[in-house]
Amino acid sequence: MCQLIETIRIENGEPSLLSLHQKRMDETRVKLFGLKESVNLSTHLSSLSLPQNGIWKYRVTYGIQIETTEFEPYQKRTVQSLKVIEANELQYDHKFAQRTEINKLFALKEDADDILIIRNKLLTDTSYCNIALWDGSEWITPSQPLLKGVRRESLIQSQKIRSFDIRLNDLPSFQLIKLFNAMISFEEATEISTSSIFS
Predict the structure, then answer these.
(1) pLDDT digits over 7-24, tens only?
(2) Does 82-198 carry CATH code 3.20.10.10?
(3) Segments of the chain scoring below 50 in pLDDT
(4) What are the φ and ψ backbone dihedral angles of 182, each rounded to 5 degrees?
């Protein structure tokens, strides 16, 4: 049985984007296991003593039911450069705990801090983040990411970003790239010049 994860940001005792985590978890359990009954994350969290100070990562590992949970203080990684890696066959449309293929690609980053994964000539994600690119007037996120993250979904819903196909040869049209995920808000997200993306 495959294991999946939800990584939830807890800030000063408050979980972030919980309804979107719940939606993704429910949809994943239906698709992979045929389970229609929900495991209620809000009820689960309300039974715990949440850290009240700072930003914490709450990792939920689940399958048919919640298997393990853990809290850890969150430390954002420093990323200032990206190496383009092509991986046309890579599939990661659910948040699997097992990340062997992505880890193999990450090992190819050479002197860069992270990788930018290209699938069939289209930009997708970095190893841990969804992305958005600045074209001088708006932020655009790839319409075919490896994983449709909860932060990405929230930003699309609030119209802070729009989704389009972005081809690798479109990169010169953009000035900046932002890296964000469930743990990194859009405001906190690192901005990198597209000149720091290497082939």
Answers:
(1) 999 999 999 999 999 999
(2) yes
(3) none
(4) -60, -30
